[in-house]
Amino acid sequence: MSRADYAADPTLLARVLDLLGAAFGPWVHDQVGLGSRWGLRWDRCSTPFVREVDGALVAHLGVMAVPVVLDGERRRVGALHAAAVHPRHRGRGHLRALMGEALAWCDERFETCALDGDDALYARFGFRRVGEHRFRGPLPPDRVCVARPLRLTSVDDPADVRRDEAGTWHIRAGAT
């Protein structure tokens, strides 16, 4: 099995980030750093599945437990993320092997799994597109749920985001 453990290998997170940087671009380091500022430590919330060739990390697939409400019931969903294969090692079955192991692991823990990615790539693993609901423009007056117009919040604004003594994050709703 290729399930790894960040706690057991202190170099793993840096190696995973280097792989993701090679696969997607250098912006990955900034995004993971932004999450860390919110207390979302990838090495504490993601279970990594990795493949190595000659001691070098060549593929990664992460799994996170995500609490959601489906049909009014709280459930835990496995969220697959950061599926990546180093460009020099693509087309050799690394992602297929990781996906098989990760999905078997998820079957024991979650009711379902979700991921955001290329439909053609992931359809062969049983994933299908589920529509997202989005709206644009003003809501009808009888459907408005906030008294003020919405605005973007910022992690850089202490008025929008704070962490209490227990470590819980409080995010102010995006109303003006």
Helix and strand string, N-terminal first? HHHEEEHEHEE
Low-confidence stretches: none
Distance between the termini: 50 Å
* Overall average residue pLDDT: 80
From the spread of the alpha carbons, the general shape counts as globular
Strand order, largest beta sheet: 1-2-3-4
Helix content: 25-40%
Could you give the topology of this structure?
Layout: H1 12-24, H2 27-37, H3 42-45, E1 46-53, E2 56-70, E3 73-85, H4 94-107, E4 113-114, H5 119-122, E5 161-163, E6 169-171
Parallel strand pairs: 3-4
Antiparallel strand pairs: 1-2, 2-3, 5-6
Give a written overview of the molecule.
26% of the residues lie in helices and 25% in strands. The radius of gyration is 19 Å and the shape is globular. Strand 5 and strand 6 (169-171) form a beta hairpin. The chain has helices at residues 12-24, 27-37, 42-45, 94-107, 119-122, and strands at 46-53, 56-70, 73-85, 113-114, 161-163, 169-171. Helix 1 (12-24) packs across helix 2 (27-37). With 176 residues, it is an alpha+beta fold. A four-stranded mixed sheet has the order 1-2-3-4. It has a two-stranded antiparallel ribbon with strand order 5-6.
Summarize the structure.
The chain has five helices and six strands, in the order αααβββαβαββ. The protein has helices at about 10-25, 25-35, 40-45, 95-105, 120, and strands at about 45-55, 55-70, 75-85, 115, 160-165, 170. The chain is globular.
